[in-house]
Amino acid sequence: MLQNLLRSYTQMDVPEGVRLHFIIVENNDRLTLQDIVEAFRGQMPQWPVQYRLEPRLGIAFARNRVLDCAIDAGIDLLTFADDDETVRSDWLIQLLAERDAFDLDIVGSPVRLAPPGPNTSFWEKLVWSGMDRMNKNSEAKSLRNRDQGRVDQVRIATGSWMGSLPFFCQTGLRFDNELGLGGGEDWRLWADARKLGAKTGWTPHAIAYETVSRERLSIHYQYRRNRDHCLTEFRAKLKNRLLATLLRLPGSLAGRGLTLCIYVLAIPFTRGTTLVRAASCLGSIAGLIQACMGRTSSHYDRTSGS
Fold it and tell me: Cα–Cα distance between 140 and 38 in angstroms, integer?
């Protein structure tokens, strides 16, 4: 998948006057991607390609290493795409256009699901369909917020992201390393950036595509993903506003329980597409309960894809 991402970078349109600098950080105890990186360097000889190791396991550690490398290199703008994605040829142009039009500190854009592979089973395609439906609904909601002047309310994830590095230099803002392998570091960064006065935005035109590995095309994974995400978010709320969060907990559990019942009842009438929503909702309920019990998330202690 990393090779697919780098291949899409070689086909990416670069605006006139823009210089690129690629940074690849391997989150591992040793470097293992030398051949892939060297092949990419050979395809892009006009731009520097930095390859670094981050031995502390956790996405936040890896992202912060990229951020620090970019700042040390004197770069003005940093973009992120995940190693299970590809970007459209005009991706960089569209991110820059939105950033320049509104003088944004952080800008994000949609990450759509790439079509499932030819060997995908019927059940996996059913799960993919449910994931795709949820993803499209989320993108449509972001677009409505943008059109209605509420673009600053769109939560920005780093799957497709551009940040102004002077803002990070001035504020010292970084991804939260305390999240470890739990994930959610990108939404946490967006929330922290807004508190520090960041101007954030979102464009529907800079498209990236996520390759969903077969290991993630399961109901159990959808349950686990939302359980762990909710666990991380709710722990943060308990830490910051303990009493108010606990007082709202019964209502939140009741509301999610009712939603779960609706999704389950709708499964026969939606050709199974609400099955993924039901699993996600059940996972969020489990996440709330486990957060109250002091559990922490280690969502990314297991990786998938190739």
Answer: 39
Beta-carbon count within 10 A of 272 CB: 17
Q: What pairs with residue 160 in β-bridges?
A: 81
- For 119: left if phi > 0, alpha if psi spans -120 to 50, otherwise beta; the answer is alpha
Q: Residue type at 68?
A: D
The pLDDT tens digits along the chain (306 residues) read 999 999 999 999 999 999 999 999 999 999 999 999 999 999 999 999 999 999 999 999 999 999 999 999 999 999 999 999 999 999 999 999 999 999 999 999 999 999 998 889 999 999 999 999 999 999 999 999 999 999 999 999 999 999 999 999 999 999 999 887 767 889 899 999 999 999 999 999 999 999 999 889 999 999 998 998 898 888 888 888 888 888 999 999 999 999 999 999 998 888 777 899 999 999 999 999 998 988 876 656 566 665
Instruction: Record the pTM.
Output: 0.88
Residue 267 and residue 208: Cα distance in Å, rounded?
Answer: 30
